[in-house]
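Record 1 of the preview.
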Amino acid sequence: MIDLGRNFFWDKNVDKTLWADLQNHEITKMHKFTALDLSMMAMALGFKYRSPKPFVKSAIGSGGNILGDNDTKKQRAVASIMAIAVHHTGSLDILEEPYGKIRRIAEEYANGGLSYLHDIYMKSASDKIVIQKLLKLIKDS
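->
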């Protein structure tokens, strides 16, 4: 497995607001979504809307564990992170760069997609609606 050097991080500027809302939301708890799940959803939305957003403050906490052994969820997350970095730069050459650079590109897309994910969660009446909206966005991509 490729080691991206550390866990996926969130921007300290929004950690206590939007991320906290998502982590504490009943849908997150009901479906046992992890920090990594939320990070990957936000990253996908940031990518869909072409809105990477550089961190305002330093990185904080863990947006999910992407380190470790043969875990399928982690492997998919790392593959998604690498694919977004390649698309963002327009070149496979990014894969020769330090992994911190690859990870940071993906973290900025998650940072940019956070408000979209937050809106979907907060403006939906049920978990089915949230999942339908997310699936529709993926399908329309």
